[in-house]
Automatic annotation (TrEMBL):
Its main location: membrane. It is found in: Membrane. The lineage of its organism: Bacteria, Pseudomonadati, Pseudomonadota, Gammaproteobacteria, Oceanospirillales. The keyword Membrane applies. It is a multi-pass membrane protein. Belongs to the UPF0382 family. It comes from Billgrantia antri. The chain crosses the membrane at residues 46-63, 70-92, 104-123. Residues 1-27 form the signal peptide. This is DUF423 domain-containing protein.
């Protein structure tokens, strides 16, 4: 996927985040058991933070494109789908077994942050190799 596609994906994720948050506040509160409502809110929160982080990587990419940035975006996107998506599905269906998927999404989001750290280190290394500081 090229940068325009990633920008669109981040924008769609942001829209879904706002819609899910509003839906939780206006339709789900009181309609779900507290545990499921809390799980839904956790999904919204993690999706929001990772959507903002995606925008940051895309902005960085606009000034300094690096291959590792796509890996970060892919890990976060897949992580959000598995983590937040499983929490949303669990809240709507009431099936606790869907929560088994959630940790895999969390691991992918963590891997995305670690990949981001490696990208940043690589960028710094590349600058020092070229005589820039």
């Amino acid at each position: 996927m090229h940068d325009r596609g990633w920008w669109c994906l981040a924008a769609l994720s942001g829209a879904v985040t706002v819609m899910a948050g509003a839906f939780a506040a206006h339709a789900l509160q009181g309609a779900l058991p507290e545990r499921l409502f809390g799980a839904f809110e956790t999904g919204v929160r993690y999706q929001a933070w990772h959507t903002l982080a995606m925008l940051g990587v895309l902005a960085w990419r606009a000034s300094r494109p690096m291959h590792g940035q796509y890996l970060v975006l892919g890990l976060w996107t897949t992580g959000m789908l598995l983590f937040s998506g499983s929490l949303y599905a669990m809240a709507f269906s009431g099936l606790g077994g869907l929560g088994m998927v959630t940790p895999f999404g969390g691991v992918l989001m963590i891997a995305g942050w670690l990949a981001l750290a490696l990208c940043a280190l690589r960028a710094r290394y590349d600058q020092s190799e070229s005589g820039m500081t």
